[in-house]
Design a protein that fits this description.
two-stranded antiparallel sheet; about 45% helix; disordered N terminus; elongated
Amino acid sequence: METEKLLTPVNSYGSHDRDMRPVLGSTAFHPEEEEFRRCLKYYFMSPCDKFRAKGRKPFKLMLQVIKILIVTIQLILFGLSNQMVVTFKEENTITFKHLFLKNYADGSDDTHAVYTQTDVYDHIFHAVENYLAIPSETIGRYAYVHPDNANQSALMLCQQYYRKGRIDPANDTFNIDPKVITECLGVDPPEKISTPSEFRRKHPDLALDRSYKNFTLKFYK
């Protein structure tokens, strides 16, 4: 074998063809070295070779397979759970678009827009009215999330505008005060009512909070 040739001791260099004789049996290893060689050879064997050599079952290989199966099952369960969350979010987003956006149609996300001040107010009031009427109008069960601060309303209508601003069309210049002012109007949902539809029919003015009708946008700022 090639390995045995490499392990054969060489006493001199040069061409000595007539003196060369097979010396394969002259090289002997110590028992410790032979045991170490066998251990190394067994260590680098594949599980199948180890099973053929000593007949031991590949417990480590079986353990690795079990670990792979457990991790795979965990990934599948996580993917299914995440898919359910994503589906729930997408379905609720579509539902809220139909509830709060006036004249909304599926597939009109890129074209749904308003162009006049009247349309802006109509869309805002439409969204607020449907938000306040959620318990009595929606098929699904939705509840209001009340803030931790007792003085804060459940729904806030806010607008931000510059304190002062003037446009000179002749020079095409803008004179704007960089200070930004924020104004908010709180809208509270109605209290829990046993029969909301009948209550709204008998008391249309008391059923919902109409204070948001006084909300005025400063388009010029």
